[in-house]
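ERR on first pass: missing label on line 2. Operator R.T. fixed the label and resubmitted. Corrected input:
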Amino acid sequence: MSIDYSLEPSIIEGKPGLASIDSTIAAPMETRPNKNFYMALSVTLTMLGIGAVCLGYSFYYGMGLWGNNNPVGWGFDIVNFVFWIGIGHAGTLISAILFLFRQKWRTGISRFAEGMTIFAVMTAGIFPLIHVGRPWLDGYLMPYPNQHGLWVNFTSPLVWDVFAVSTYFIVSAIFWYIGLIPDLATLRDRTVDKIRKTIYSIFSLGWRHSNRHWHHYEMSYIILAGFATPLVLSVHTIVSFDFAVSILPGWHSTIFPPYFVAGAVFSGFAMVQNALIFVRKIFNYEHIITLDTLEKMNKIMIATGSMVGYAYAMEFFIAWYSGSPLETFVFVNRAFGDYAWAYWIMVSCNVIFPQLFWFKKIRRSIPLMFVVGVFVNIGMWFERFVIVVTSLSRDFLPSSWAYYKPTLYDIGILIGSFGLFFSLLLIFTRTLPVVSIAEVKAVSDGAQPTHHAGGSHAE
Amino acid sequence: MIGEHIHDNEEKPNLEEMSPLSRRNFIAILGASAAFTAVSCTDYPDKGKIVPYNKKPEEITPGKANFYASTCNACPHSCGVLVKTREGRPIKIDGNPEHPVNQGKICAKGQSNILNMYDPERLKVPQVIRDEKLVNSTWKEVDSTIITALNQAVKDGKEIAVLCNTITSPSFAKLISEFKEKFPTTKIYPYEAFVTDNRNTAWKACYDNIPQFAFKWDKAKVILSLDADILGTEGNHVEQIRQITSKRSADELKSFSRIYSAEAGMSITGMNADYRFRLAPQQQLDLVLTLLVELFPREAAELSLNTVDYSFTKFASVNGLSSENIKQLFSDLRQHAGESIVYAGDKLPGEVHIAVNYLNELLGNTRLYDTESPVVEYISNATVQDFEQLSTNMKNGKVGILLNLNTNPVFHLPEDIGFAGSMSKVRYAISLLENLNETSKLSNIILSGSHFLESWGDYARRAGIYSLQQPQISPLYDTRQKEAVLLSWIRGAYNEQDWHDYIMSNWEKEVYPKVAPAADFKTFWNTSLHDGVTAIAQNKVVFSEFKKDSLKNIRVKYPTQDFTVIFSESFSLGDGHFANNGWLLELPHPVSKVVWDNYASIAPATATELGLTFGDMVEISINNRKQKIPVFLQPGMAEKVATIELGWGRKEICEVGLGAGFPAQSLLSKAGGLTQLIYSGAKIGKAGEKYKLVTTQENHLLDELFVKDLHLRRHIIREGTIEKYQKEPNFIKVEKEKQLSMLKPHEYTGEKWAMAIDLSKCIGCGICVTACNVENNVAVVGKTEVSKGREMHWIRIDRYYSGSNEEPIVSNQPVMCQQCDNAPCENVCPVVATNHSPDGLNQMVYNRCVGTRYCSNNCPYKVRRYNFFDFRDRLADGYYQQDSLSLLHNPEVTVRPRGVMEKCTFCVHKITEARQTASAEGTKFDGSNIVTACQEACPAGAISFGNVNDPESAVSKARENNLGYSLLEELNTNPNVTYIAKLRNINSEDIT
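pass 2 clean. output:
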C-alpha cells in the first residue's frame, strides 16, 4: 500500500463553513456563561483567595512564615517561579516557532496557548517580586538614574531575569494582541451590544479586513514571531542562569540552558494539552482542536520528555566523569539522600510516564493523555524542586546542612498561583476568542486557492 | 465701583444672621487646623526627645566609648572585667587585661551577663505578700518590717538563716560577721549549686591547714583529666583554657602538651584530648590506683595495693580500653614526673580525689600548684547536711527569718530535703533577687536586687589578688545591692554611699597597708578603681606533709548496677541563674550543638539496646525519683551511662526561659549516690513521646557511610599529628592545587584585613559566639526558629566527628564570613548590596539589601544570616523591643530589620574607629591595634587579626605557616580567613 505523505489531512475537521467558524468561536462571548463556568471560577477564585491570604500574612509578618531556612534560601518561591515560566513556553513555541515553520496544525491551539503564556508569565512574575525579604523595595532591581548613583549589578543573573521576563511578557503580550486584532474586528461586527461594540471597536483599532490591513498584519505578525522565537530559548536560558552561574554543585552546570528550555516546552505542552482537552469539549471545538492536533502535542511531549531524561542521565554521567567528589555527592544525594522521594517522583513523571506516548492508542486516548499530561506537570514541578532544594540543603560544608520543609503558607501560595492562572484562563475563555477565527478560516478546507476544481467554498 | 461700595455700605448688615466668627478668629482657626492637620499627618512616631547635654558630664563624649574596670560575680571565680560604656550605658563586658587570673578574657556567661541587667522582666521594686497577693511596696516599708523582724527574731532566739553564693568578697565577709554580731542568731549558708564539696574535703584530709591551690596548667607537659571538664565547666575555665592552650602551639613543638581525658560523657576537655578513655565513673578510682601501682609499686605496696589487682592489662581489658594507650599514659607520667597534672573532677568521690592528690604528690606535681595565690575561703560553704538541718529547723519553727540573697535553694536543693515545704513555716521568707525564681515564689517579701553592673564590691578569690567592682550605671530600677541592704539593716537606715564607704574603709585598713604605700590612700583607691585590680605579692605557702592516714580506706568498689547518671552544671546557664538569658539559651552547646534545652546524653550503642533514637523521651528513675527527659545520642559516651546538665527546666522564671529544658535536679537526693552528682542504679525507660530537640548542626551518626568523614574527604578539616608534622612539615599542603583565574587579581595597595584561626588552640567553647552576639547586636530568634535553621550567629563553631561512634575523633572549626577576595556572594547580588571594600572586606549594605537570599545560596561557607522576620519583634511578641533592651545595643552596629541579609564584617566598626582615631591623632594607621570581638574574647588566643599587607602582622605570618590553609580552596574564592591545621599530640603519624 502506498501512502502519499505529501497529502496532509485537513487541520479542521468536518469542513465547517466560514460563518459557522465565526459563530462557533464567538459563541462563548455571545452567550451567558452557564452554572458550570461560575462553579469553576469560584473554585479558582477560592484558590486565588487562599494564596492572597497566605501572601498577605507573609507580607505582614515576613517571609519567615515560609519553609525557607539558612542553607535553603530558595524554596517554593523560586520553584514556582521557574515552573510557571516554563508553562509559558509552549505558547510562544506554538505561536511563534511553529508559525515560522509553517506548521499549520498550530492554528487551532495557538491563541489559547499564547493566552496561557501570558497568564503563566504573569503568575511567574509574581514570585520574584514576593520572594524577596522587602518586597516594597523591588524597584531597586530596575536600573533607574538616581542621585545616589546607585545602579543594579549587571553581573547578577537576577537582573538578567528582570529583563528577560519583562521582555518576554511584553513581546508575548504584543504578539498576542496583534493576532487578536482581526478577531476583535469580527466580534465587533457581530455584536449588537453597545458596550461590547465600543470595547471591541477600540481594541480592533479600526480594522476593516481590507487587503492593506491584512498585508500589514501579516508582516508585523511574522516580524513579531521572529522576535518571540529567540525569546523561547532565551528566557528559560536566563532563568537557568540563576542556577548555572552560581558555584553550587548541582546548580553550576553548563547543561542547564538546553535542559531548562526542553523542560519548559515539555511542561508547557502538557499544560496546554490538559487545558485544551476541556476547552474543546466544553465549547464544541472538537473539529477545530482535533485529536490529530492533540496527538502532535503528545509527540512533542515525548520528544522533549526524552531530552529531559537524557539531561538527567547526562548530569549523572558528568558528575561521575568530572571526578569532582562534590558533584558526585550532590547527584548521589539527589537519588538516594533525604529528598530521594522527590527525585523519583520527578524521574517517573518526566521520563517514564511520557514513554507511554510511543503507543498510538495512548497518544490518541483523551483520558490517558490527560493523565500523562498531569503527571508531566507534577514531574516538572518536582524537577525544579529537586534542583533548587536538594542542591541547597546539602552543599559544601556538612555543618550547615538542613532539611527544607515547606509550610502551609508555601502550599497556600502555590495553590494561589494555580488559582490566579486558571482564573485568568477562565475569564479569557469568556471574553476573547480562544481560537483564532481569522487563522482557522485561513486553514479550513477551501480557504486556499487551488488548482483543483474540487476546492469548494461551502457556505 | 466706589459708588457701589458706598451703596453696599448703606445697607445695614444683619448682625443676627452673620456668623459670630470674626475674620480674625476665622483666620486663626484656619491656620490652626491646617497646622494640626499637617502635624497629625506625619507618621513620625514619638521616639522621645534627644536633648544635648546642658552641662557635659565629666568623661562622657557622645560617640566615644568609655571603659571601666569592674569584677564579675556570675560565679565564684570573680574575674576582672572591663565594661564598655557608651553615653553612660554599659554595652559590652570583656575581661580585664590587667587581671592576673583571667587576663582579659571572660566566659560565655560573663559576656552575656549584660543582657541580665537590661532584662525587661527584672524585679523593679520591692514586693510583699499582702492578703495572699503580691503587691508593690517601698524600701522604706520593707526595711522597717524586716528590721523589726530581725530584732524580734534575735529576741525570740530564732534563727536568721542567710543564704548566698560562695563568699569571695573580703568586705562582704566582714559585713557578714558584723551582721552576725548585730543579730547573733544569724547563720550563714553560702553554697554553690550542682557542685560537690568532695575536692575540698579530700584536700583537707590530705593536707593540714593549707588552702586549696589552683594549678599552673601552663607548666604541665602531661595532663590527665578524670571526668573533669577543665576546659568547660570546672574551675576557672577561662584561666584554664588560656594556660592549657598556651602549650598547644605548632610553633613550639617541644613544649606541646599532651592531654589525656578519662571520662564517661563527652566533655569539651574530652573533645580536645589527645587520648580519650571512655570510662564509667566507677572505674576512675581503679585507673588512679593502677597508675599508682604501676608507677610507684613500693608506695602502693604500703597501701597493700598490688599488681595482681591493679595492672594496665587488667584495667584495660576490664574496661575495654587499648592497653597500649594506657601504657602510653603511664610512660608519659613517668617521663614527665613533676611536669604533669592529674586532675579529678569535682563530681568524683572523695577517694578518687585523695588518690589523685597522693599520685600528684608522688609524681612531684605539687610544684605545679600555684602556691603564690591559693584559693581563699572566707566562710566555708554549707553542706547538704547543713541544709537538711536548716530545713528541719524551719519546719519546727526555729527559724524566724530566711534571707535568700540572689540564690535559688528551692530549685537547687534535692527535693527530699523538703526545703520548699519548710519555707511556709517561716514567718519571714525574704528573697533579694534580680529576677523572680522558684524561691521568691515561696517568699513573702521580695526585694529587688541590683545587677553587678549597678553595684559596688570587692573580691579576692585568690590570695593577694584584690579586684574592685564599681557601678557602670546607676540602678535602672528601684533596686539595691545585697551588701548595701544588709548594711542598712545593721545601721537601721539606708544611705546610698554607705556600702561604698564601707568597702573603702575596709580597704584602707586591710589592703592599703599590705601594699608598700607609695601614695596616699585616696590615690591608691582611685588607681585600684581604675585598674580594677590590685595584686599584692604573697608569700609562698609551704606545703605540709601529705597525711597518709587519708589513704586508709582507699580501696572502694562502687556499685555499678543498671545505669549510671552523671549530673553536671550547665555550660551556658550555670546553676540556672542565667536561664532567662536568650543569648545563653541560644548558644549551641559546645559538644552537642543543642540549643534551648538540656537532655540525657547516652551512647548510640546503649540507645540501640533500648530502642531509642534522637529526641525520644525517656523516663529516668533513681530509686523513687523520676524525671522525663529527651535523649541525645552522643558519640564517645561510655555505655550504660547518661549525662545530664542541670540548671535547666526552671518553672518559675520570666518569659524567655520558660519551658527551656527539664528540671533533672529532681533526680538528686540528699543522700547522694556515688556522690551528690553521680548515681548508679538508675533505670532508663522509653517514655513513648518524641521531643523536639533542636541543634544547629544536623546529627549524623558515624555509621552513615554516605556522609561519614565528609569533612576530611572535602579537606574542610585538615589535621595531623606532631610526628607527621615533624617528618613532613608541609603535609597538609600536598593536595593544594594551583588556582587559575581568567581575571587579573585586584591589587590591594593599602591595608587588607585578614584573620587566622589556630585550630590547635581552638577548643570549641563558643565564647567567641557570645562575644560576637553582644558586639554586633545579634538577635535571639528562639527555639522554633533555630529548628528551622534560622539562628543568626555571625560566627559558629562547626563540630565534626570522625572515627567510630565509640571512639570518635572530634574536630572543631569556627566559621565566620571568610571575606573572600573572589566572593561568590558579591556577583550574584542584583542590587550590589554586598560588595568589596578597598581594604579587602566583603561589605554588606543593609539599606540597599532587598533580601533575595541569592548571596546566601551562593556562599559556600553558609555564613550569611537572613532576617526571616523582624526577630526582635518575633520572639514572644516583641520581647526584644522593650525599652530597656534598646539600651543594650551597640550604637556602632546597625540593628538589622526584617528581610535583610547580614553577616560577619570583621568588626568593621572597630576598623573604622581605629582609622578615625589615627587620622585625628595624626598617627600612622597600620591596624595593628584592632581587635575583633571574637578575638578579644577567645580565651585560647586562637584568633589573630590584622593587616595582611603588613609583613610583621600575625596574620601575614600565619598565611605563610606550613599548616595554614583556607576553607574549600579549590573553589578559588581566596578567603581571607586562614586556618592553622590542628596538630594532635599522638604517638603516631596517623590519627586513628
